[in-house]
Each structure stands twice: as C-alpha cells, then as structure tokens.
Please model this.
Amino acid sequence: MSFSNITLLLVSFLGAIYDLKARRVPNWLTLGTFILVLLYNLILFNWNGLLISLSGFFVGILLLLIPYLMGGMGAGDVKLLGTLGALTSYKSVISIFLYSALCGLVLGIIWIIFTPGHFKFLITTGQILPAVDKKQKVPYAIAIFLGITLYIVFGPKNLFNIPIWQ
Model:
C-alpha cells in the first residue's frame, strides 16, 4: 500500500471517528492536512503539483457545496472531501465522491431503519428525517471513509470494473 493511500485512510478514518463522537470534523485535521499536502506537492512537484492539489481541493469542495448549503451536511464534511481531493486529484476526488455517495445511501437507509421512530415517520409522512438535531443525522464522514476504502480497493474504476476515466 502506498504512502498516499495510507494518508487517505488515516485522514478519513480520523475524520469519521471525530464526526461519530463529536458530530464535527476538526479544522486542525482538514486544513492542517491540506496545508501539509500543498507544501509537500510544491516541494516535490513544483507549481504543477500545487495546481493539481488545488484543483482536487476545489472540486472536492464544489461536489458537496450544494448538500451543505441545503443543510444536509456540515462544513467539516465538505472540507474533508476537499482535503482528500488535494491528496489525490480532481479526477480521483470525483470517484471518491461517487463511492462515498453510495456508502452514504446505504448508511442512511440503515440509520432510518434502526433509529427508533424514523422508519415510522418515513412511512407515515413520506419525509426522510424529522430531525433537525445534529445528533440524529448520519455522520457523513463515515461514508467518506468507506468511500475512500472502496476507492483504494477498486481504484479509478467503479464497482462493476468499468473505467470512469479514459
């Protein structure tokens, strides 16, 4: 396993643990890692490496910006995906986003079924969640960690072994 993959797993795992326990992803993890990645890529790959990291960061941010603005997730989740994009590239962060969305869907379904009252609320009202409390929402950093794990296992291919990028 490469250093990059170990870093991806470590950062996303720490983000998931913090999100599960405290319902937030700390800035020292996301922004601290982002700054270290920028410096690393600038030193090793000059301006080209810096531009690749910045493009991955901004694509990662943009992918989760609308769900964040709609109140579906916290800013820490957005910054976490941006940081993971800086670690990989803009193409890779799109794959990570798709894997994470799939994992988030599965986690959301499990969360609704096994959280008391949510499944009944869904059946009777047709709305997904009655909750506005952060503690009653799925910590999305867990889905991002699981998405990273799938990305490392399958790479830039999807679950059906079809290349996403030519």
Remarks:
- The two ends are 24 Å apart (CA to CA).
- The first helix runs from residue 3 to 22.
- The chain has one domain: 3-154.
- Residues 16 and 34 are 17 Å apart (CA to CA).
